[in-house]
Amino acid sequence: MVLVDEELRGELLRRAAADQVARRALDRAAMAAADGENLPWLRQVITDAGWPGRSLVGPDGAHAAWLLAQHADSDPVFQRRCLDLLTAAVRRGEATVVEQAYLTDRVLLHEGKPQEYGTQAIARDGRFEPRKLRDPEHVDQRRATVGLGSLTEYLATMAEQHAPEPMRLP
């Protein structure tokens, strides 16, 4: 039995938390700073240890590793490498198929191809719509195969989460 690398897990969780604080605040400068620090660090982790899966860093640490790879947009070649490693990790039970679906869509769009699952959306006129999508008529079937709800529900949730706060009168 392999023991979880608590030091690596802790650093993954710390970096993922900083990533999420910046993204929730919609602070582009903080997002860029977090991504700029995380990318070379994650490259080195993968060089040294391979993909940080569940048995190495626990389920939350593995999820944090996926999140950092998901936001490694400035290096699409590395992001593709992460997807390949994550795909192998899913086969070994070391990562989730949902994480694989999200990273698949991100990588495909960076490669100029349509996404499969509709996980990548853009806001237009106060609502969200999926970015370029392969075979939209069957997207909900593909989403269901990886445990995702319907695209309509997903986009409604995104709109709800990103809705502006209502003004409160004194």
Task: Give an overview of the whole structure.
- The structure is a single chain.
- The protein has one domain.
- The chain has helices spanning 6-24, 28-49, 54-70, 76-91, 97-110, 139-145, 151-161; strands spanning 121-124, 127-130.
- The protein has a two-stranded antiparallel sheet.
- The protein has 7 helices and 2 strands; from the N terminus they run αααααββαα.
- Helix 1 (6-24) runs parallel beside helix 3 (54-70), helix 3 packs parallel to helix 5 (97-110) and helix 4 runs antiparallel to helix 5.
- It is globular.
- A hairpin with a 2-residue loop joins strand 1 and strand 2.
- With 170 residues, the protein is mostly helical.
Layout of strands and helices, then pairs:
Layout: H1 6-24, H2 28-49, H3 54-70, H4 76-91, H5 97-110, E1 121-124, E2 127-130, H6 139-145, H7 151-161
Antiparallel strand pairs: 1-2
Helix pairs in contact: 1-2, 1-3, 3-5, 4-5
In round numbers, the mean pLDDT is 93
What is the ordering of alpha helices and beta strands? HHHHHEEHH
Stretches where pLDDT is under 50 for at least 5 consecutive residues are none
Number of helices: 7
Briefly note the structural class of the backbone: mainly alpha
Summarize it.
The protein has 170 residues and is mainly α.
Keywords summarizing the entry:
170 residues; mainly alpha
